[in-house]
């Protein structure tokens, strides 16, 4: 495959691109003139208008991650931005889980899927002095009740990408961690309950939390500025500060926030 470096063309790979934040990111990058490679397990070839290459497949399979990156280079000749956005959630107390395989699946998607995509995209990102992005969650910075497996996967992401950032110093490749709070993404469609099956009722009051469009726009701005870390909400920033001085209080706030769903 021929790598194109000196060009005005810019290419972004976005995983988890068929709905929610991923869909918002695809539209945001298209509006900025990017060519986009959009991946999700069930994305349709005609999912978007514009210069979009849609590649369906489960990125927990390393061969799919390699195919997504290879498709970007074969079609467009380069990779400038990789957004590791694909994710699944779970809403259940650990002591109520009846199928521990749900924990494994969350880790495979949220952590290993991002690792695989980054592994195959990294040589091309080094050539373009590009950007690696990991869409995490405030649960990746602090423990959250009913989200133990999800929080564990997001903590793993943070450890991996923070370490990678140090390894890539001097390479020109930026690593940005994104920590949204609750976002109106229809998360029930990608979340499992105590029995390992999809939950049917959203635990989030989606009309009272951040809109997908606002979240995606903030992420795109942060990527363009090569920011190191973005905590999206004022409440999230305050919570992380309080966690240093009053961790017990933050635990109670986290429990209350989950109970309220916003």
Amino- and carboxy-terminal Cα gap: 47 Å
SSE ordering: EHEEHEEHEHEEHEHH
User: How many individual domains?
Assistant: 1
**CATH-level-2 architecture:** 3-Layer(aba) Sandwich
Q: CATH topology, which one?
A: Rossmann fold
Strand content: 5-15%
What structural class do the secondary elements suggest? Answer: alpha/beta
- The amount of helix comes to 40-55%
Order of strands, main sheet, comes to 3-2-1-4-6-7-9
Question: What Rg is obtained from the alpha carbons, in whole angstroms?
Answer: 18 Å
Average pLDDT rating: 87
- The CATH homologous superfamily is called NAD(P)-binding Rossmann-like Domain
Number of E strands = 9
Low-confidence runs (pLDDT<50, min 5 residues)? none
Could you walk me through the main structural features you see in this protein, from its secondary elements to its overall organization?
Strand 6 (131-135), helix 4 and strand 7 form a beta-alpha-beta unit. The chain has 262 residues and is of the alpha/beta class. The protein has a seven-stranded parallel beta sheet, sandwiched between helices. 44% of the residues are buried. The chain contains seven helices and nine strands.
């Amino acid at each position: 495959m021929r790598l194109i470096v000196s060009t005005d063309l810019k290419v972004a790979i976005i995983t988890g691109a068929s709905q929610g934040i991923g869909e918002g990111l695809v539209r945001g990058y298209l509006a900025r003139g990017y060519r986009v490679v959009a991946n999700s397990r069930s994305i349709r070839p005609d999912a978007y208008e514009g210069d979009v290459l849609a590649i369906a497949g489960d990125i927990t399979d390393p061969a799919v991650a390699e195919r997504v990156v290879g498709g970007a280079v074969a079609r467009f000749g380069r990779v400038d931005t990789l957004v590791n956005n694909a994710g699944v959630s779970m809403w259940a107390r650990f002591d109520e889980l009846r199928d521990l395989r749900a924990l494994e699946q969350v880790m495979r998607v949220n952590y290993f899927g991002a690792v695989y995509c980054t592994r195959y995209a990294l040589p091309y990102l080094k050539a373009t002095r590009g950007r690696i992005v990991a869409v995490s969650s405030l649960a990746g910075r602090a423990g959250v009740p009913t989200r133990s497996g999800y929080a564990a996967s997001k903590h793993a992401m943070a450890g991996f990408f923070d370490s990678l950032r140090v390894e890539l110093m001097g390479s020109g490749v930026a690593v940005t961690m994104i920590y949204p709070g609750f976002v109106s993404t229809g998360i029930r469609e990608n979340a499992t309950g105590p029995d390992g099956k999809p939950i049917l009722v959203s635990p989030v009051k989606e009309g009272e939390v951040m809109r997908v469009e606002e979240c995606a726009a903030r992420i795109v701005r942060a990527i363009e500025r090569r920011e190191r870390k973005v905590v999206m909400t004022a409440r999230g920033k305050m919570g992380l500060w309080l966690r240093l001085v009053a961790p017990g209080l933050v635990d109670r706030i986290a429990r209350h926030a989950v109970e309220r769903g916003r």
